[in-house]
Amino acid sequence: MVTTPARLATASHLHDAITHAVRRKRAADHDLALLLRRCVDELLYRDLGYISITQYAEQAHSLGPSKTRALVRLADTMQHIPDLADAVRDGVIPWTKAREVARVITPTSAAEWLDHAQTVSNRELESLARHALTGDTVAQAEARRHASDDLH
Q1: CA–CA separation, 81 vs 27, rounded Å?
Q2: How far apart are CA 55 and CA 61, in angstroms?
Q3: What pTM does this model have?
Q4: How far apart are CA 41 and CA 30, in angstroms?
Q5: Tens-digit pLDDT profile for residues 7-64
Q6: Count of beta carbons in the 10 Å neighbourhood of residue 29
Q7: CA dihedral 124, 125, 127, 132 (to 10 degrees)
Q8: Residue from 60, 88, 62 nearest 73 by CA
Q9: Residue 108 carries which DSSP code?
């Protein structure tokens, strides 16, 4: 198939539309995390007849318990690290990468981790975060991971 200027223009337009849709979805995940956190903070799920936030999220919205708990934890971290909240709200990284970064970042390390999160896969980021200590730089986390790999 030959790529004509018209096809290229159509493909480019479609790419832009998809990129915009993905960013909107990521922004919705940001909002969902904050809304779930509020529901927990104010125990509003009880007013709706549920005994827990996970029961409410699962029965009312088909959200699994682990995703619900992860989003609530993410909201906690976003409240303390504005750069993380901005990255999720602006669609720079998906909530799944934000979840991993939230385990280790501090306000001073946020920019480096968020930049790194944009360049690696979820699996790579998960592995790195698993070996990091809170406040580690990316390089420190990589060194810990390599040291751990050398032991095995």
Answers
A1: 16
A2: 10
A3: 0.87
A4: 17
A5: 999 999 999 999 999 999 999 999 999 999 999 999 999 999 999 999 999 999 999 9
A6: 19
A7: 140
A8: 88
A9: T
